[in-house]
């Protein structure tokens, strides 16, 4: 067998010397770093995907919105109570000139209700801390804020009942609110409401109006409302009396009294808040009609 030439420097064969030179000629980030596995034709084994219910995947899952964090309850409150804060509105279908327009409506009373929920959570957290630390001074501000929040909500409800339009509702039906909402609500919220059902609004102003009416306008509206109430009250007295005088008879008096008292009681229930006020007003009206029925019955008997 012929002797193969030997590398004089390394004392190795030419085939092994070429393999070492080829390996060393590859770029490397660090000295002594082995070549990549793909260049050595070693198959790479992929790990199988973990099941959805594995322990590691459950740890890496994002927190559930149904879980309440008493230190940061804002996200939980928004998930459960913020759905009715902003709604989509459009003009009434009979307003042909306003068709195609859309806007938003913000219920400020819903903000107050969300604030009341936050106050309850804060007070409950202070109670839990008090059981551990015995510090009572944190409960006093929390209870005071909760009571004040309830009083503010009651004032909002009373103010809404006294006004013809809800002052705690920013609606796209008013031009001023429409401009403010379109400028304030971001593109993300607008994209979120695209394709949703829009609630119809009968009043869709095309001119600017004040947030609250002026004092002169309030006096004018109050005067008109008092005149309307007096006219309705006079009609409920004059109507049945005229009917019972023109159409004499026991059944006519009984049926007319029953019908008018029922209608009057329903109207009073729509405008009065206290139960005792509704009952006393309806009873006073019924007493007037009963007295008139008695007088007309005696007069008819005297004529006979």
UniProtKB/TrEMBL annotation:
Positions of the DUF6594 domain: 113-290
Compositional bias (Polar residues): 18-31
Assigned keywords, A-Z: Membrane, Transmembrane, Transmembrane helix
InterPro entries: DUF6594
Disordered: region residues: 1-70
Residue stretches of biased makeup (Acidic residues): 1-10
Protein's name in the database: DUF6594 domain-containing protein
Phylogenetic classification of the source organism: Eukaryota, Fungi, Dikarya, Ascomycota, Pezizomycotina
């Amino acid at each position: 067998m012929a002797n193969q030439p030997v590398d004089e420097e390394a004392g190795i064969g030419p085939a092994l010397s070429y393999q070492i030179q080829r390996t060393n000629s590859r770029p490397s980030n660090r000295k002594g770093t082995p070549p990549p596995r793909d260049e050595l034709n070693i198959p790479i084994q992929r790990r199988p995907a973990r099941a959805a219910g594995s322990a590691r995947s459950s740890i890496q899952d994002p927190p559930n919105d149904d879980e309440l964090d008493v230190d940061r309850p804002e996200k939980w409150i928004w998930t459960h109570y913020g759905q009715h804060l902003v709604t989509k509105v459009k003009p009434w279908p009979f307003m042909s000139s306003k068709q195609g327009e859309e806007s938003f409506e913000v219920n400020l009373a819903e903000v107050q209700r969300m604030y009341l929920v936050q106050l309850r959570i804060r007070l409950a957290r202070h109670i839990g801390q008090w059981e551990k630390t015995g510090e009572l001074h944190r409960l006093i501000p929390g209870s005071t804020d909760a009571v004040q929040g309830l009083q503010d909500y009651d004032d909002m409800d009373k103010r809404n009942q006294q006004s013809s339009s809800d002052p705690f509702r920013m609606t796209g039906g008013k031009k001023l609110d429409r401009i403010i909402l379109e400028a304030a609500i971001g593109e993300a919220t607008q994209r979120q409401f695209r394709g949703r059902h829009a609630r119809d609004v009968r009043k869709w102003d095309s001119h600017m109006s004040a947030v609250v009416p002026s004092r002169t306008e309030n006096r004018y509206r109050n005067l008109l409302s008092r005149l309307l109430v007096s006219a309705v009250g006079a009609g409920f007295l004059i109507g049945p009396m005229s009917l019972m005088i023109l159409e004499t008879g026991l059944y006519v008096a009984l049926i007319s009294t029953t019908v008018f008292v029922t209608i009057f009681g329903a109207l009073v229930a729509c405008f009065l808040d206290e139960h005792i006020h509704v009952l006393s007003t309806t009873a006073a009206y019924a007493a007037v009609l009963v007295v008139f029925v008695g007088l007309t019955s005696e007069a008819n008997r005297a004529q006979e």
